[in-house]
Amino acid sequence: MSELVFLKLGGSIITDKRRYETPRSMVIARIAKELSAGLQARPDLKLLVGHGSGSFGHFVADKYHVHEGNLTDWHGYAETGAAAQRLNRLVTDALLAEGVPAVSLQPSASALCHNGELVEMALDPIVKLLQHGAVPLVYG
């Protein structure tokens, strides 16, 4: 059976969390290159990558108090999700440029939470991607 590795790229590693929507492009590119080399050296490895939203999502989430579960203003969730997607696009593009078959998945689109706790999440898409040699890239 193949080894499964989950690698979490913290938002403060791939962005400058002090500056609004500021990616650390050289860091992202270096990580993509290293992951590509790792997968070439270990073709049997199953890799699941996740990343935070760093300076992309946190500024907007704070503005709308998303972390407090503000359910009266869905605009904040929409903006936070869009910001996270912008960073995800940069990470995805860097991985693809290095030959890593990264496929983006937004966990919040298939997860159910109650009182801040994860209750249910669709794992089938992640499992299928891993079975077919892709690298699921979760974010948020």
Automatic annotation (TrEMBL):
Listed InterPro entries: AceGlu_kinase-like_sf, Asp/Glu/Uridylate_kinase
Assigned GO CC terms: cytosol
Keywords noted in UniProt: ATP-binding, Kinase, Nucleotide-binding, Transferase
Aspartate/glutamate/uridylate kinase domain mapped to chain residues: 4-140
Coiled-coil ranges per UniProt: none
GO MF terms held by the record: ATP binding; glutamate 5-kinase activity
Pfam families: AA_kinase
UniProt-listed PANTHER family: GLUTAMATE 5-KINASE, ISOPENTENYL PHOSPHATE KINASE
Protein name: Aspartate/glutamate/uridylate kinase domain-containing protein
Lineage: unclassified sequences, metagenomes, ecological metagenomes
